[in-house]
Design brief:
Layout lengths: L6 E2 L5 E3 L1 H12 L5 H4 L1 H4 L13 H16 L2 H16 L21 H17 L3 H19 L4 H5 L5 H10 L3 H13 L3 H6 L18 H7 L2 H9 L8 H17 L20 E3 H16 L5 H16 L11 E3 L1 E2 L1 E2 L25 H5 L3 H6 L3 E4 L2 E4 L5 E7 L2 E8 L7 E19 L5 E5 L2 E3 L3 E19 L2 E6 L8 E6 L2 E7 L1 E6 L1 E3 L2 E3 L5 E6 L5 E3 L5 E4 L16 E9 L4 E2 L2 E2 L13 E7 L5 E3 L15
Parallel strand pairs: 8-11
Antiparallel strand pairs: 1-7, 2-9, 3-4, 5-28, 6-21, 7-8, 9-10, 10-11, 11-14, 12-13, 12-14, 15-16, 16-17, 17-27, 17-28, 18-21, 19-20, 22-24, 23-24, 24-27, 25-26
Helix pairs in contact: 1-4, 4-5, 4-6, 6-7, 6-9, 7-10, 12-15, 13-14, 15-16
């Protein structure tokens, strides 16, 4: 096994601060922090002896709930997490089988849930040190090893085989045994060959409505980005990385963005790949799983570009898919989203006409259980450990308390980024200790300065003997840009606006209509009810010229509040209204005409992640000497 370039600290050592702590607190007070009280699939799950879902939903939920509880150091959340872990461990079979099904049901039970529950158990051990976990994960994975001798991987387990390498790696690092490497080989051999799929990529376009398969499923694709890097790292002998896993991830994402990309740096999938259209959706599970892939790729040495991609997803796609209070979320979000009402005829590839509503479990409940991992795992990617010292990963406010060569060290990352252009690192050492501090800068940053000195590289490594309290100031600038985005058919490019890793959009004022009802025994009532959103402000604009003016107001209140009037940063552009039809509750993918319907005016674009309704992709009027309909 090869050691990763960076190692993650645990939620005992690393804590959120600033705006990121506030995001976690909002999440804890919203759906993620209350699903065990209000949602039958968690509250009455077979995992704890009930009669409801006994597959992925409790492990999905714990995968976010556990680190959230310990990052916030909240005793009530911790107590409730322990209840579920105790119930799972108490019900593990004598032969190691850990999932809640009978022996007769095992052959038809998709073992994706085994991978997932073992990942959650490892997280729990990292937070608590509970040594019951080692034995439970050991028995569960050895049971899986024997199970796969007679029952070949299928379904989600086959598509997500590499996820099992995460708890398997943890086990191997603690006490390696030969069957563990044999299990890794079995998983890869029986699982989907994602590398072969991308080598001969057959899915350059959306497969059209009703065409569902595992190969085009957006969440599987988001997860698979880390597959080769995880396997290569697990199986490789100690020494320098070959980086074949990094090459695979980069090429796979390049293909996905080329054929199905979105302005936020993700790819569509509602729920399967859906092309580059502005009203093609992408699933919230896909956002948080792509974030997790980026985090592992960064840790495994695939390059700082994965930190940029992580930030783009975290600052744009993740907050936009959840209401500001995190009591409701979407299954599918869209780049151009001017209404979120039930569709009589769904335009999504395979999802129903409710998938874009904000609610408890729109379309399907996987995202309800799974979205909670996004913010906590982002915290754990803020400051990373490496052989020579500490490194900045994602630029987020957090505080690390650790020991370096036996000396207690505190490393605090203070920042309002991405709403301010820089950060401060404050290192406090109880007595002199020598180590390196590696500062990261986004690829789009320019005019980088560290304590006033110009830096030309994407990383600045400070190697010194630290004593007492030392403050490092990292400053940088970003340029606002208008980026072309081709739909292919018709071949008229739309444009979106970006500054650094923040995407900006024209906000559309939303009227929210509350829907309270019960379906299939699941009650929706305030605050965990459904909402339909209707646009109440003009959205049918084209850009008039490519000039952008950046305005900074400063961050006050929650980072991703829907208060667009007081957005901490904004871009101002000239726009003109054009004929842009609303068809079946959605903005048509492109205008009916580029003939201006009124005088030009200044329009205000705000961070994408602060919008419920928005227009992100607009045409640029001045590209065409004679604007005509198309």
């Amino acid at each position: 096994m090869r050691e990763p370039k960076y190692r993650f600290f645990t939620a005992k050592e690393l804590k959120p601060s600033g705006w990121l702590r506030e995001q976690l607190r909002i999440q804890a007070e919203g759906l993620c922090g209350n699903l065990d009280k209000v949602w039958p699939d968690i509250r009455d799950s077979r995992w704890i002896g009930g009669d409801r879902e006994g597959w992925e939903r409790v492990p999905y939920w714990l995968d976010g709930f556990i680190p959230m509880a310990w990052l916030l150091d909240d005793e009530d959340l911790k107590r409730r997490a322990r209840f579920y872990i105790d119930a799972i461990l108490e019900r593990q079979n004598g032969d190691g089988w850990i999932c809640p099904c009978s022996r007769e049901e095992r052959r038809l039970y998709d073992v994706w849930a085994v991978f997932l529950v073992c990942k959650a158990l490892v997280l729990y051990h990292d937070c608590t040190g509970d040594e019951r976990v080692h034995g439970a994960v050991y028995r569960a994975l050895k049971s899986l090893y024997f199970h796969l001798e007679t029952t070949t991987l299928f379904g989600w387990g086959s598509s997500r085989w590499f996820e099992c390498l995460i708890p398997l790696r943890w086990l191997y690092e603690r006490a390696p045994e030969r069957w563990m490497t044999a299990l890794a080989v079995t998983l890869k051999t029986q699982g989907v060959n994602w590398k072969a799929l991308f080598h001969d990529w057959p899915y350059g376009e959306s497969q059209g409505p009703g065409r569902w398969n595992f190969m085009t499923h957006v969440v599987n694709l988001a997860m698979c980005l880390k597959s080769e890097a995880l396997y290569e790292s697990f199986m490789a002998p100690p020494g320098p990385a070959r980086n074949a896993g990094a090459e695979f991830a980069g090429e796979a994402l390049r293909i996905l963005l080329r054929d199905h990309g979105m302005p936020i740096g993700h790819f569509t999938g509602d729920e399967c790949l859906a092309g580059r259209g502005p009203i093609a959706g992408t699933e919230l599970c896909g956002i948080v799983e792509a974030m997790y892939s980026c985090e592992w790729l960064l840790a495994l040495g695939a390059g700082d570009i994965w930190a940029d991609r992580l930030e783009s997803l975290a600052f744009n796609g993740l907050p936009a898919a959840c209401s500001a209070d995190m009591w409701s979320h979407q299954y599918d979000q869209m780049s151009n989203q001017v209404q979120c009402a039930r569709l009589e005829k769904s335009h999504f590839t395979t999802n129903n006409g409710e998938a874009h509503l904000f609610g408890l479990e729109p379309h399907f409940g996987c995202c309800t259980a799974n979205f909670g991992q996004g913010w906590p795992k982002l915290v754990l990617s803020g400051i990373l450990g490496e052989d020579s010292g500490l490194a900045v990963g994602a630029i987020v406010p957090c505080v690390l308390d650790t020991a370096v060569e036996g000396v207690p060290v505190r490393c605090e990352l203070q920042t309002g980024y991405p709403f301010e252009d820089g950060y401060r690192v404050i290192v406090t050492a109880e007595k002199p200790v020598t180590f390196s501090l590696s500062l990261r800068f986004p690829a789009s940053a320019r005019n980088i300065r560290v304590n006033g000195e110009v830096v030309s590289a994407a990383r600045c490594v400070i190697q010194k003997t630290w004593k007492g309290k030392t403050e490092i100031r990292a400053e940088m600038d970003f340029a606002a840009e208008m980026v072309p985005f081709s739909l292919g058919k018709p071949d008229v490019p739309l444009f979106f606006c970006r500054r650094g890793n923040l995407v900006f959009a024209l906000p559309v004022k939303a009227r929210r209509e509350k829907r309270e009802y019960t379906r299939d025994g699941v009650e929706r009532k305030f605050p965990y009810c459904d909402y339909e959103l209707y646009g109440e402000s003009p959205w049918n604009f084209a850009f008039k010229g490519g000039g952008l003016r950046f305005v900074r107001r400063g961050l006050e209140g929650p980072a991703f509040a829907r208060d667009t009037e007081n957005a901490p940063v904004s871009l101002r552009a000239l726009g003109v209204p054009v004929d842009w039809p609303l068809v079946n509750g959605a903005a048509f993918p492109f205008p009916a005409s580029l003939e201006p319907l009124g005088a030009e005016e200044e329009i205000k674009l705000v961070p994408y992640g602060r919008t419920d309704l928005r227009m992100t992709l607009l045409p640029l009027l001045d590209m065409f000497s004679n604007p005509v309909g198309y």
